[in-house]
Design brief:
about 350 residues; Yope Regulator, Chain: A; alpha+beta; 14 helices; 5 strands; globular; five-stranded antiparallel β-sheet
Length: about 350
């Protein structure tokens, strides 16, 4: 395969399956490049292919779930390590490639394809050469913040002023920014500005979710909605009352996901045994999505339905039909499968945010 053939394949991609096949062929193409041409080809491929990325549809994501569990953190770690160095594009991609070649020396073509795919999925692809960011200690940050306190007070005033055009507020903020003395002051000012907008967004989102939670569903009497969970998740059949509270059998920690350690746990209530996410997923979904938006609801419902995961209170759970009492997942295939399935399900739901940006 030559460059023209690969470009034609890039331009003919129409779905996620095509895109995965492209990554598989691209890895072979890049391996065949002579050392002096490889950096140029890496820059070219990642720039071209990133713009053609296709989101997976229902049923397409499953083909790479296992590769994701094995390699996603690895690839993200490599991008984390090299993207902040401010090096030229060719050197950045060369470093990524060299690491992949070492780490994937005995990997299958599909695993190599997934690693290219994971780089292309990353928000930092395509990569752009940028100067190294300013790093300040908390003490230094506090001193600079004190020096520009007057500008911060004016910023808070601006954010409360009525603005009838989007540019009114931003042009006033630019006026403040232009009057700051140096890069350090401007950097701290923008940190404060970002924090103010984040606080506003979180407050507005919490208020919106509160209003939505108080609304009865359309065409549903209010008395039928009170005290019920969101209806789009399949509900588990909870044990009958009188069987006592759930008792934790063992914690089942899983690798860090989206910045949090996923401390699944195995519970028993009466004769029933189930694996739970402890309610963490729903809390995060509430921050990411409007859980009453039809398109979001439809996709979340498909995901939990595919993995046969159910909702119990605010927890996502999987019941283990035949509990043997063996808590060693290396010996208990049902427990191991439940743990992998729940992790795949919640990971898929939380990472669905990439389809909505």
């Amino acid at each position: 395969m030559n460059k023209e053939d690969l470009l034609q394949q890039v331009n003919s991609v129409t779905n996620f399956t095509d895109y995965f096949a492209l990554c598989k062929d691209a890895y072979l193409f890049l391996q065949e490049q002579p050392p002096e041409k490889l950096p140029e080809m890496l820059v070219w491929f990642f720039s071209e292919a990133a713009s053609k990325y296709c989101n997976p549809k229902e049923g397409e994501f499953e083909q790479v779930v296992l590769y994701s569990l094995k390699y996603k953190k690895l690839v993200t770690g490599l991008v984390d390590a090299f993207s902040t160095k401010g090096c030229p594009e060719s050197l950045y991609y060369q470093k990524l490639w060299d690491c992949l070649e070492v780490l994937l020396h005995d990997a299958s073509p599909e695993e190599r394809a997934y690693c290219l795919l994971a780089i292309l999925q990353d928000e930092r692809t395509p990569y752009y050469e940028m100067p190294e960011g300013l790093r300040m200690s908390e003490e230094e940050f506090g001193k600079v913040r004190g020096a520009i306190l007057s500008s911060i007070q004016k910023l808070d005033f601006i954010l409360w002023l009525p603005a009838y055009r989007r540019t009114e507020e931003t042009s006033r903020i630019i006026h403040l920014l232009e009057n700051l003395e140096n890069r350090e002051q401007k950097s701290v000012f923008l940190c404060v500005l970002w924090g103010r907008y984040k606080e506003r967004w979180e407050k507005d989102n919490a208020n919106r979710l509160g209003r939505e939670a108080e609304k009865p569903r359309k065409d549903t009497p209010k008395s039928d909605t009170e005290g019920k969970d969101d209806p789009f998740f399949p509900k588990s059949t909870e044990p009958e009352e009188g069987e006592g509270s759930p008792v934790e059998i063992i914690p089942c920690p899983y690798p860090a996901l989206n910045g949090d350690e996923y401390d699944f746990a195995l519970f028993q209530k009466g004769e029933s045994v189930y694996l739970s996410d402890r309610g963490k997923t729903l809390a995060k979904l509430n921050k990411i999505f409007d859980l009453h938006e039809p398109d979001v609801v439809k996709n979340l419902k498909r995901i939990v339905g595919h993995y046969k995961v159910m909702m119990q209170g605010n927890e996502f759970v999987i019941y283990i039909d035949k509990w043997s009492g063996n808590t060693n997942e290396d010996e208990n295939e049902d427990l191991k499968k439940a743990k992998l399935t729940l992790f795949s399900c919640v990971s898929f739901m939380l990472n669905m945010k990439i389809f909505y940006v």
